[in-house]
């Protein structure tokens, strides 16, 4: 049986660590050539080296979602090697963006979260469009916090709600080219970006899931592989919660 993504070229943002790293790894293990993009230059290089040691077809590109010039440069570099078949909009500002009530929230932090998580997702998608082959697939990474309304996390929740809304608009607009656009909404996952989350929040999730217990990156990446493969060829504009049944869509 051939790999699901054999011959495909896919870009993953925020791929130096956490969910993005696992997405890149599992896409490459399914036969894709994967471009890892991240702002963390040192960690990006280490991630590419680690995956290359598995004989996986990967490369790295620096990107800063807060800088439109960086995004444009990144995709110019990617385009020099040819077209792409898929994009995973995973990069986002998540660490240290919660804890304050809506009346205490810092307006500058709000702007920063929206700049990276919302505008950045749009700008990356815009930059990728000309490189995407007709029939390609985009997966936007939202969050189930936007489905249940996690408290004291106002900007992040709002930004991920915007990603869900943008996914639907993108799907309508790109459907003429048979480019599919879907979103996943992971629950709280045990990765570097969630180490700051209080133990009681982890317990809330782990005890409240239909499938009790912690969520790990490998619990999420299968949905991304599926959405980028031909097995989901008539699925677009959809939001798929991947959270063990903590909240249903």
Automatic annotation (TrEMBL):
PROSITE patterns: ADH_SHORT. Transmembrane segments: none annotated. InterPro entries: NAD(P)-bd_dom_sf, Sc_DH/Rdtase_CS, SDR_fam. SUPFAM superfamilies: NAD(P)-binding Rossmann-fold domains. The keyword Transport does not apply. One of its GO terms (molecular function) is oxidoreductase activity. Keywords: Oxidoreductase. Belongs to the short-chain dehydrogenases/reductases (SDR) family. This is Putative short-chain dehydrogenase.
């Amino acid at each position: 049986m051939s790999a699901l993504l054999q011959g495909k070229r896919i870009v993953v943002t925020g791929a130096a660590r956490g969910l993005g790293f696992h997405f890149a790894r599992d896409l490459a293990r399914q036969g894709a050539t994967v471009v890892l993009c991240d702002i963390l230059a040192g960690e990006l290089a280490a991630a590419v080296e680690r995956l290359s040691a598995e004989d996986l077809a990967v490369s790295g590109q620096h990107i800063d979602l807060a800088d439109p010039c960086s995004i444009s440069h990144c995709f110019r570099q990617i385009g020099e090697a040819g077209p792409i078949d898929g994009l995973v909009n995973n990069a986002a500002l998540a660490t240290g963006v919660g804890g304050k009530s809506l009346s205490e929230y810092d307006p500058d932090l709000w702007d920063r979260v929206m700049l990276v998580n919302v505008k950045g997702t749009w700008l990356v998608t815009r930059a990728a469009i000309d490189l995407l082959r007709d029939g390609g697939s985009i997966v936007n990474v939202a969050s189930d916090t936007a489905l249940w309304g996690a408290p004291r996390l106002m900007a992040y929740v709002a930004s991920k709600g915007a990603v869900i809304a943008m996914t639907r608009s993108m799907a309508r607009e790109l459907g003429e080219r048979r480019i599919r656009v879907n979103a996943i909404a992971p629950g709280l996952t045990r990765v570097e970006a969630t180490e700051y989350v209080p133990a009681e929040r982890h317990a809330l999730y782990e005890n409240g899931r239909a499938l009790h217990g912690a969520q790990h990156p490998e619990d999420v990446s299968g949905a991304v592989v599926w959405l980028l493969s031909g097995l989901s060829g008539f699925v677009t504009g959809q939001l798929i919660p991947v959270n063990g049944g903590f909240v249903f869509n």
